[in-house]
From TrEMBL:
Pathway: Amino-acid biosynthesis; L-histidine biosynthesis; L-histidine from 5-phospho-alpha-D-ribose 1-diphosphate: step 1/9. InterPro entries: ATP_PRibTrfase_cat (IPR013820), ATP_PRibTrfase_CS (IPR018198), ATP_PRibTrfase_HisG (IPR001348), ATP_PRibTrfase_HisG_short (IPR024893). The gene is hisG. This is ATP phosphoribosyltransferase. NCBIfam families: hisG. It comes from Megasphaera paucivorans. Its EC number is 2.4.2.17. The lineage of its organism: Bacteria, Bacillati, Bacillota, Negativicutes, Veillonellales.
Length: 211
């Protein structure tokens, strides 16, 4: 039986595709810079689709994909009610959520501050827990711009290598959560395709061990 896997576009998809290829799965039409969104291996055992990260759980919950791989940050922020099983911590795509601001510029946290972020739910929870009064501005990307152009005092965003913060003259004020990529599974597929799923889990674990 063929298995359909939805991958979050970007770094997670690149890593998982590399793992699959290293394990002998051949995807003749796949290349990192292709605009194609769906790939099948020559053995017709895996179909991979590349989707925007918040949509991975939508595809999996509705059975349009059997399994999905997506960042835990996105699952917490946007998919908390999804009826899917989380079956594996892939140990890849590791990143940390941080509050960041302009390097060297002091932020008075006793005053009400504005926060630019793609993660309003996670950010609100963090500042509430710390009794900080904030205005959250939901952005859809390139959030590092917000403090530079005066849209917000700080940002809340994920940091992986730190390159984006550095390139834009920002510094971490506080790290507060760790994330990694997770495999999620459709509840019916989990019963019907358990062998195929276990095979994929094996591929990922073996590649992680070798990495
Ligand atoms: C993500 C995130 C940070 C950056 C972190 O942005 O929002 O900007 O990656 O990675 P780094 O620490 O390795 O630089 P992404 O590239 O997904 O773009 P977007 O925010 O515009 O969606
Ligand atoms: Mg970004």
């Amino acid at each position: 039986m063929s298995i359909h896997m939805a991958l979050a576009k970007g770094r997670i998809a690149k890593t998982v595709m590399t793992y699959l290829q290293k394990s002998g799965y051949e995807f003749p039409t796949y290349s990192e810079d292709s605009r194609k969104l769906i790939f099948e291996d020559v053995g017709l055992t895996i179909k991979v689709t590349l989707v925007k990260s918040p949509d991975v759980a939508v595809y999996v919950e509705r059975g349009a994909a059997d399994i999905g791989v997506v960042g835990e940050d996105v699952l917490i922020e946007e998919c908390s009610g999804a009826d899917v099983y989380e079956i594996l911590d892939l140990g890849i795509g590791c990143c940390r959520m941080a509050v960041a601001g302009i390097a060297g510029k002091k932020v008075d946290m006793t005053k009400r501050i504005t926060v630019g972020t793609k993660y309003p739910r996670i950010a609100r929870q963090y500042f509430e827990n710390n009794h900080h009064s904030v205005d959250i501005i939901k952005l859809n990307g390139s959030v590092e711009l917000a403090p530079i152009v005066g849209l917000s005092d700080v940002i809340v965003d994920i940091v992986e290598t730190g390159n984006t913060l550095r390139a834009n003259g920002l510094d971490v004020l506080q790290y507060f959560m760790d994330f990694s990529a997770r495999m999620i599974c459709n509840t019916v597929s989990f019963k019907l395709k358990i062998d195929e799923i276990q095979q994929l889990i094996h591929v990922i674990k073996r590649n992680n061990a070798e990495a």
